[in-house]
From TrEMBL, chain A:
Tagged with keyword Signal: yes
Signal peptide: 1-18
Coiled coil regions in record: none
Protein localization: Cell envelope
Organism, scientific name: Sediminibacillus halophilus
Name this polypeptide is given: Probable sugar-binding periplasmic protein
From TrEMBL, chain B:
Membrane topology: Multi-pass membrane protein
This protein's name: Glucose/mannose transport system permease protein
UniProt xrefs under InterPro entries: ABC_transporter_permease, MetI-like, MetI-like_sf
Region span, Disordered: 1-30
UniProt xrefs under Pfam families: BPD_transp_1
Keyword Membrane: yes
Organism: Sediminibacillus halophilus
Gene Ontology CC: plasma membrane
Keyword Nucleus in annotation: no
Length: 440, 332
């Protein structure tokens, strides 16, 4: 018996020692590991300098977006056969899971080589403020990009004069998609002002059609409507000042926007709380509802998933009173601090920001390129329209998608909107936003 | 072996057993720990150490984060006192969460017990095809809450499925999209009362977990010897009286176990709600688990999220700790 015990004790000790030693070795090797993103470290370490791995972290796992990412990776590997690409995409709606994983890795000093982040506050107030990003000014100069991206867009990925990431695509948030058949049947014209919008909505309601489809199972879809009304009410410059904290939330125009939001919410489908945006868009596709405000990724949903034809089955127009504005949602990639092979990551970023790279990625993803000089012929009807608008419009950051304000504020705003959709209490909404404003 | 186990317990908690004679305590140092016991210790040590670090260590860590200022992406471990807790208890959403948890827990546990008991008594009537029924009722337990959530999301969606059939008769329940609060009154910043929407979630949860309480009760019923029923019958008790006076009291330990197990499920519930309804309009179906996830991983309010986790732990502890204490007493 004693012998057996002795053996056991030995085994336990061995286990503990093994655990400790593997711990310490990984501690020692962390710096080397971190550079290429841990798991696939061996090739990079043995290769020594010349070749390595670039780990691309994103939440692009859906149908079109994954195709786009793979096309981009293909292009990169053709140009740089010596660099391995590690596609570290994390599935999950709107990047919720990916952002949690990213936060864990960044805080553990194990950053991916480069990662997807929305331009604007999500980047600037998040990772840049946390001092986790390298500035890319010299890189932009080197690539000659300063005039290849719109200035408004460069401002969105800059903080205190330093540029921190490379935008790859653009989506527009202030679009209303509508069912052409329903509009035709009721003899309606596309509304351009808020009053016209209400008029159209009234007529639709009288005809027994839900005027506006909403799926706010996740609150950001409602927040998106509110931000578009705010943009219409304040105009692009004051809209930006609002997020900069220069205009208070109890400003008369903000209150007026909340009142309009309340009115518009009177025209949505009754079961909005049980639907996500796709379910809501389906109502428009089926003709049960006439319109939906959604970012233009909905275009891909209409044409690919619902098999509807652009400008025949469904049409689109800018959210009322925001015609000359472009609510920008842009995915960007930057260079985190602590990456061991920054030169190779920059090689990837240069492909990502190149004309070829953007034209390979965006037609598949269903977005438009962030560059002003992309090849228009590669894009569909909607894409061409959006590109034209993008070049002419005022670019404004989206709150619902984390560009206008830090994530903390966005979360609180979404909560306030969720309560507002039910209670329709304007004072309460304004107060909550005002209290949360300290986090801007 | 059993005796030794008791002794060990006494060593660990001498003060909890003042009634033990002191003489027995003095005997202890003489006792040698046998080889068998060392083997047992050897086997237990690794998992004990791992649990100590990865369960209790991290609970402690969460507790520490919950009183820190870490509410951005940048970790900040400066001491914040109870700031985060005060914020939460003043927060509209968290108050709504607590209200929802209370009503969800009461309805869920009550229905699971009543239905599980009722079904198990029916199945216990020596009916034909018993195992078929037992399997049918047990089957939902094999599903994950996420699957249940998705299924019931569509079953109870006001605009689809059999709700369209009900609409023919003029009945149009809004299920989980209903924002009404029954018997509501102002309490803090929320309206306290039964949120109608939570009933839909309760239905789904009960559908899934009734099989479990049914199995427990069925085992309990099988454990009651027929002689007892016979004896009661001989004494002239009606069937109803037999159940009321004999069977149900004997099932009491089962009921306690079911309550404990269901309570810890319902207080920590996340997956069912997340898949089925999300937070709901006006947070009528929100629960602390969902709030914790969203505030931590979307809003980067790490300290607030940790505080919610600690509050949930305490809520569960309210149920579990008395149970564990009672168990220890009866084991001893």
């Amino acid at each position: 018996m004693k012998k057996l015990f002795g053996i056991l004790l030995l085994m336990v000790m061995a286990l503990v020692i093994a655990a400790c030693s593997s711990d310490s070795s990984s501690d020692g090797g962390e710096d080397a590991d971190a550079s290429d993103g841990g798991d696939s470290g061996e090739s990079a370490e043995s290769g020594g300098g010349g070749e390595g791995t670039v780990e691309i972290f994103s939440w692009w796992t859906g149908a079109g977006e994954e195709d786009g990412l793979l096309a981009l990776i293909d292009l990169f590997e053709q140009e740089h056969p010596d660099i391995t690409v590690d596609n570290a995409a994390v599935a999950g709606g709107a990047g919720t899971n990916a952002k949690a994983v990213l936060a864990t890795r960044m805080q553990g000093d194990d950053p991916p080589s480069t990662f997807q982040v929305h331009g604007g506050a999500e980047l600037n107030e998040g990772w840049v403020a946390a001092d986790k990003m390298e500035p890319l000014n010299d890189f932009y100069e080197e690539q000659g990009w300063m005039d290849k991206f719109p200035q408004d867009l460069i401002d969105m990925v800059s903080k205190d004069g330093n540029i921190y990431s490379v935008p790859v695509n653009i989506h527009r948030g202030n679009v209303v998609f509508y069912n052409k058949q329903v509009f035709e049947d009721n003899g309606l014209e596309v509304p351009t002002s808020y009053d016209e919008f209400i008029e159209v909505a009234d007529q639709l309601q009288d005809a027994g059609v839900t005027p506006l489809a909403l799926g706010d199972k996740e609150a950001w879809t409602a927040t998106q409507i509110f931000e578009n009304i705010l943009l219409g009410e304040l105009g692009p410059d004051d809209y930006k000042s609002l997020w900069a904290g220069d205009i208070p939330f109890d400003d008369d125009r903000v209150v007026a926007a909340a009142e309009k939001f309340k009115t518009i919410l009177g025209y949505v489908n009754e079961d909005h709380a049980s639907r996500n945006w796709q379910d809501a868009a389906q109502l428009v596709g089926d003709g049960e509802a006439a319109m939906i405000n959604m970012g233009d990724w909905a275009k891909g949903y209409f044409s690919n998933d619902l098999d509807l034809e652009t400008n025949k089955d469904f049409g689109y127009f800018a959210f009322p009173e925001t015609d000359g504005d472009f609510m920008v949602i842009t995915d960007t990639f930057g260079l985190p601090k602590g990456v061991e092979n920054p030169d190779e990551v920059k090689e990837f970023l240069s492909v990502l920001g190149s004309k070829e790279g953007q034209d390979a990625f965006n037609p598949l993803k269903g977005s438009i390129p962030a560059r002003v000089d992309a090849d228009e012929s590669k894009y569909d009807e909607y894409g061409k329209d959006a590109m034209a608008d993008f070049n002419e419009s005022n670019l404004t950051p989206s709150l619902a998608h984390g560009s206008a304000a830090a994530e903390g504020f966005v979360t609180k705003a979404n909560q306030a909107v969720n309560i507002f959709v039910t209670q329709l209490d304007v004072d309460n909404l304004i107060n909550t936003l005002k209290n949360a404003a300290s986090e801007l | 072996m059993a005796e030794q186990a008791v002794d060990r317990q006494e060593q660990e908690y001498p003060e909890s057993r003042p009634q033990q004679p002191a003489a027995q305590k003095e005997k202890k140092p003489k006792k040698k720990i046998s080889g068998d016991q060392w083997v047992a210790v050897g086997f237990l040590a690794p998992s004990f150490i791992l649990v100590l670090i990865f369960v209790y260590g991290f609970i402690g860590w969460t507790g520490w984060v919950s009183v820190s200022n870490w509410n951005t992406l940048v970790p900040d471990f400066s001491f914040a006192g109870l700031k985060n807790y005060i914020y939460l208890f003043n927060d509209y959403r968290f108050q709504a969460d607590l209200r929802n948890t209370v009503f969800f827990t009461i309805l869920f546990i009550g229905l699971v017990i009543v239905m599980g008991l009722g079904l198990s008594i029916l199945i216990d009537q020596k009916l034909r095809g018993e195992s078929l029924f037992r399997n049918i009722f047990l089957f939902p337990m094999a599903l994950s809450f996420v699957v249940t959530g998705v299924v019931w999301q569509w079953l109870l969606n006001p605009s689809t499925g059999y709700n369209q059939f009900l609409a023919l008769f003029g009945i149009q329940p809004k299920w989980y999209t209903d924002t009404n609060i029954l018997a509501g009154f102002e309490w803090g910043s929320i309206e306290f009362g039964l949120p109608v929407a939570i009933i839909a979630v309760v239905i789904a949860a009960v559908w899934q977990m009734t099989g479990f309480s049914l199995a427990m009760y069925l085992a309990g019923l099988r454990g009651i010897p027929d002689e007892l029923r016979e004896a009661a019958r001989m004494d002239g008790a009606s069937e109803f009286q037999i159940y009321k006076k004999v069977i149900l009291p004997m099932l009491m330990p089962i009921t306690v176990s079911v309550i404990i197990i269901m309570a810890h499920i319902s207080l920590k519930i996340f997956d069912l709600i997340y898949a089925m309804t999300g937070s709901g309009a006006n947070f009528v179906t929100d629960v602390p688990g969902v709030y914790m996830f969203e505030t931590t991983f979307r809003g980067n309010y790490y300290a607030n999220g940790a505080a919610i986790a600690i509050i949930m732990l305490l809520l569960v502890a309210v149920f579990i700790v008395p149970y564990l204490l009672a168990n220890r007493r009866s084991d001893g």
